[in-house]
Amino acid sequence: MKTASTTHGRFITLEGGEGVGKSTQIATLRDLIAAHGFEVVTTREPGGTHRAERIRELLLETSEESMPASCELLLLFAARATHLENLIRPALARGAWVVCDRYTDATYAYQGGGRGVDPGQIAALESFIQGDVRPHLTILLDAPVELGAARARARNEAQGGSDRFEREQQAFFERVRRCYLQRAQDEPDRFLVVDASLAREAVTRQIEAGLIARLLAPASPQSSSTPPNPAKTGAAGFQDSPSESTGSPQRGSRQPGSR
Ligand SMILES: Nc1ncnc2c1ncn2[C@@H]1O[C@H](COP(=O)(O)OP(=O)(O)OP(=O)(O)O)[C@@H](O)[C@H]1O
Ligand SMILES: [Mg+2]
């Protein structure tokens, strides 16, 4: 697989429903990887580059005009195509570790599980847009839907506003959660499932332990012939911070997949 074996970098994705703590934990991941001497690029989907962020705005805006599931799906993959071409692939090729807040599992969970889009259609677009680029590790932050919703609600009240995905109904998010967990069960080697209902520090510890066991220890100079890059970190400039209220499009409606 191109991402996994023919590039020097590592591709890590963070997944999970609304408010589980993805944006909160991404800084931890960045710091841990950087401390091991690798360049780190943090980014998000939909978005991550200028054009992809413009598409994200289209996905999240509320409008009188209805958004067909097919339109949402194609916009998600359009954003992913330019994100891959302009940010993810170049970073991996130069040996950087890319940490992405939501990716194609979100498309399967939100558009597939949530909205009922045929997973076969998502798979066809995944193959067309991504080729064989897949994450080396996907960290699934799992928590009861009500808990994530309560966290997201409190965050949004503090910051003002919510997007159209965050207004989806509970049954929708239950389907999203089930789809994520099923995917994790189907691909245990790629997924690390973390109990996100715990306190922040406990979630961080689970992520650190999994990252070290799965990727950092095997990639250390002692066990690999490829030396790490000089320590440095970089951000795409679009990664949302824990204080940001914008939801990711992959969720509810539009996530095509990406998220
Ligand atoms: N383990 C935790 N315990 C309690 N609160 C948390 C925990 N992790 C994150 N939070 C808080 O919950 C809220 C949601 O967290 P965050 O924005 O990181 O979630 P998210 O998964 O990125 O959400 P979204 O899907 O909307 O992007 C924030 O206010 C954050 O500070
Ligand atoms: Mg977030």
Structure description:
The longest helix is centred in the first third of the chain and has 25 residues, at 69-93. It contains 9 helices and 6 strands. The protein has a single domain, classed as 3-Layer(aba) Sandwich (Rossmann fold). The protein is α/β, with parallel strands linked by helices and 259 residues long. Residues 22-23, 101, 240 line the site of magnesium ion. Keywords: ATP-binding, Kinase, Nucleotide biosynthesis, Nucleotide-binding, Transferase. InterPro entries: P-loop_NTPase (IPR027417), Thymidylate_kin-like_dom (IPR039430), Thymidylate_kinase (IPR018094). It is an enzyme of class 2 (transferase).
Structure, briefly:
This protein is an alpha/beta fold and about 260 residues long. Helix content is about 50%, strand content about 10%. It is an enzyme of class 2 (transferase).
Query: What integer is the average pLDDT?
Result: 85
Which regions contain 5 or more consecutive residues with pLDDT less than 50?
1-6, 222-235, 237-249, 251-259
Radius of gyration, CA atoms, in whole angstroms: 17 Å
CATH topology: Rossmann fold
Helix share bin:
40-55%
Strand content: 5-15%
Indicate the overall shape. Answer: globular
The major β-sheet equals: 6 strands, parallel
Helices and strands, in order, run as HEHEHHEHHEHHEHE
- Strand arrangement, largest sheet? 5-4-1-3-2-6
CATH architecture: 3-Layer(aba) Sandwich
Hetero groups: adenosine-5'-triphosphate, magnesium ion
- CATH top level? Alpha Beta
Cα-to-Cα separation, first versus last residue: 21 Å
**Main structural class:** alpha/beta
**Can you say what the CATH homologous superfamily is?**
P-loop containing nucleotide triphosphate hydrolases
